Amino acid sequence: MAKLFTKVLVANRGEIAIRIIRALQEMDMKAVAVYSEADRSSAHVSLADEAYLLGPAVASESYLNIEKIIQIAKKAQVDAIHPGYGFLSENDEFAYACEEAGIVFIGPKAETMRLMGDKVESRKTMIKAKVPVVPGSKEPITSFLHAKKLAKEIGYPLLVKASAGGGGKGMRVVETPHELKKSIEAASREAKSAFGDERIYIEKYLANPHHIEIQILADSHGNVVHLYERECSIQRRHQKVIEESPSPFITPALRKKMCQIAMRAAKSVKYLNAGTFEFLVDQKMNFYFLEMNTRLQVEHPVTEMVTGVDIVKEQLRIASGFPISFKQNEVNQYGHAFECRIYAEDPLNQFLPCPGKIISYRIPQGPFVRIDSYLQHGANIPMEYDPLIGKLCVWGFDREEAVQRLTRVLKEFVIHGIRTTLIFHRQVVKIPKFIQGRYDTHFIDKEFKFPKVQPKQPLKDMLLAVAAVDAFKKRKKEISFVEEEFHTSPWLQQARSEALRPFFRSL
Ligand code: ADP
What we know:
The protein is an alpha+beta fold.
């Protein structure tokens, strides 16, 4: 007889740790947090029912320290561990270690994770399951000659990818044959240093595709359901920045087909718990399997908003041995949802990470707004981890209303103390092709003009400030982005007043 867990350790930090702690507490389960020295006063620590120090800030000694996490889990006597995303969430050794310690790992079986976490192996598995994959190599590249032969068969442009890849690392676009050798060597080196695994493979580089993924849930009673799709084509350097559901691109017939294929693929690997099948869809509506993420995704809230299903709670139920709490015919896509990823990065300075202290902030409010973040007054955004500080999600009755709400909410959101990508999002939502839902994965490269002007030093005196504003106005089109922020952004206003301070002091 299945019984819900009583105590669960959350092996993560930041917004996702809080997201999971909230689900646990709503389900009457005790939440155990772990934290590094850099996160002593982080919000996930104070929200949990118990919290344990893992070790120094560096991830290898804290959030990636399997031994220490298992030791704490045993000490705290938890039933299960939720890994969140990133860190150990796709690490099969960690899943095995949990199993050995008699603790449930909230996710698929370790062997499924290993199989699907390896891009070459998962491609092979999907081919066997008759799922269309992006044309490319079936085995890792063994030599330059091997690559050359394959490249000729596949045709240019192509993409060199790391088998153990993730986060766009070890990925290189190759336009012509003479770039091949250098790209293979560079990708392999990058893969070795990022993943400790230099294996790479080659794929056809599809022209202007859409990234569309299908969320699935599978329980230990043989039930598999899908929660429809997320469109994740708004990307910067092949990394998602805004996601939405439903996709404004695919047809109902294609949606149905992709969902059916994702469920078939999940069954073919006896998948358990929540997972996502990522596909690329070309302009002719052909779709190809890209990879599977065997964990909770960053962008899961858009699916939750349109389906009403709490994916984390379903994960907890499934891992406790319960069946999924609804049937496929009980779940629909209702309305439209967006998510913007808010990073501690400076869009006016090539998106350089901007760790630091949050001085103050204003969280937007109003109907159908959801903010998942670890913002708090005085919070430290450490430099050691991913710069994602939060996610802003909105729901609307239809896409038009959701865009309007997103635009309003982005204006309301204020974060002082560090630079964030909020200003980038405010500009993106104004671009006509975004408003019309006509974009593909090259949208940001093609449509978004990054400002070229950003004073590197604080302005020395009033004359310089006036001259700069004047120059801004003359180059209005190019810098409209900066100019607007200059007037509306509190941190730029603060920078401006700081720039003028020496002038007033000298009077
Ligand atoms: P990672 O796991 O490193 O994030 P993915 O394989 O998931 O890499 O791809 C990330 C993004 O890169 C995709 O969403 C897409 O925009 C682009 N991409 C990946 N493979 C291809 C391809 N074969 N053709 C065109 N774009 C691709």
